[in-house]
Amino acid sequence: MNQPIKKIAVLTSGGDAPGMNAAIRAVVRACTYYRIDCVGVYRGYQGLIEGDFEQMSARHVSNVINRGGTILKSARSLEFKTKEGRVKAYENLKKEGVGALIIIGGDGTFTGGLKFIKEFDFPIVGIPGTIDNDIYGTDNTIGYDTALNTVVEVIDKIRDTASSHNRLFFIEVMGRDAGFIALNTGIGAGAEEILIPEENIGLEKLVDSLKKGREKGKTSSIVVVSEGDKIGKNVFELADYIGENYPDYDIRVSVLGHMQRGGSPSCYDRVLASRLGVAAVETLLDKKSGVMVGVTNNEVSKVGLENAIKMNHEINKELLKVAEITSI
Ligand code: ATP
């Protein structure tokens, strides 16, 4: 990384997340501010392989800060997982005169980026953009806060029905490997129980807790379930099990699905994305590569991409206790 960088490329990859546009905007405008050219790459790594580039000026990113999804589109590229695919991507970047790359995505995106750095010694900085918050080295990933607000709003609506009909609702939220969304929305929406991948409370405790709730006069209940909860049953099987063993419960299941990814980003996500977009450009100008920028204790922080992928972003144990106490 000895030559000064004259052109930076930016792409979004993996699952889209609200706030990605705010991050793209910040990257483009930071490039303008520091008098560097910026190109947008469409459809993530697949666009790199196909040379799907567009020169981006500050005006290209007008009116996008409030939009969900990603104006650069995203894709899951199998070809980038092959050496031939990555060689094509490298050649396209060279042909375009690009000196560094900013990748916005999750751990898969960072894994691909790391390989690329090792193979071609090409400067790359990562920005964490995923609603799951499952990345080490930042307190929040871009999109997570918006997803929390979306989920809480929906659970509030479901609660209206649950309490009107004295029902027990199982609500499945996103999170195959991480329970951040379930734990925080469960507390925020006042759930009776929260099932997350990090902790297996077991069927017995779940049943016991629901029974106790009834005994204490609760007429309706909400159980928030992470996709990857460890009880060993999916949300429908859980509902069936409770229904078969406790026929007096009136049970419903709601799977929130992709709506959790959509919508206008929260102010928190817009500010986070703006900070990280600027930080990513400045990090490259500082001649640093192979790192992810994040925000830790409200300060911009950097962590090696390798650690961002491999190390575990632990859930806050205090929240488990808060959930238990406040659901009494
Ligand atoms: P999310 O957390 O939202 O799913 P992600 O970045 O983890 O986001 P992935 O689909 O896992 O999403 O990865 C995005 C892209 O990164 C893949 O489509 C692929 O092109 C590239 N990628 C993932 N793993 C590898 C790998 N082992 N080698 C090379 N490229 C990879």
Q: If you had to describe this structure to a student in words, what would you say it looks like?
A:
The protein is an alpha/beta fold and 328 residues long. It folds into 2 domains: 7-143 and 265-310, Rossmann fold (3-Layer(aba) Sandwich); 146-261, Rossmann fold (3-Layer(aba) Sandwich), CATH 3.40.50.460. 43% of the residues lie in helices and 18% in strands. It has 11 helices and 11 strands. Strands 3-2-1-4-5-10-11 form a 7-stranded mixed sheet, with helices on both faces. A 4-stranded parallel sheet has the order 7-8-6-9, sandwiched between helices. Helix 4 links the parallel strand 4 (100-105) and strand 5 (124-128). The termini are far apart. The mean pLDDT is 95. It binds adenosine-5'-triphosphate. Residues 13-15, 45, 76-77, 80-81, 105-109, 111-112, 115, 130, 132 line the site of adenosine-5'-triphosphate.
Characteristic terms for this protein:
328 residues; alpha/beta; Rossmann fold; seven-stranded mixed beta sheet; 11 helices; 11 strands; 43% helix; binds adenosine-5'-triphosphate
Short description:
Helices cover 43% and strands 18% of the residues. The protein has 328 residues and is α/β, with parallel strands linked by helices. It has two domains: 7-143 and 265-310, Rossmann fold (3-Layer(aba) Sandwich), CATH 3.40.50.450; 146-261, Rossmann fold (3-Layer(aba) Sandwich), CATH 3.40.50.
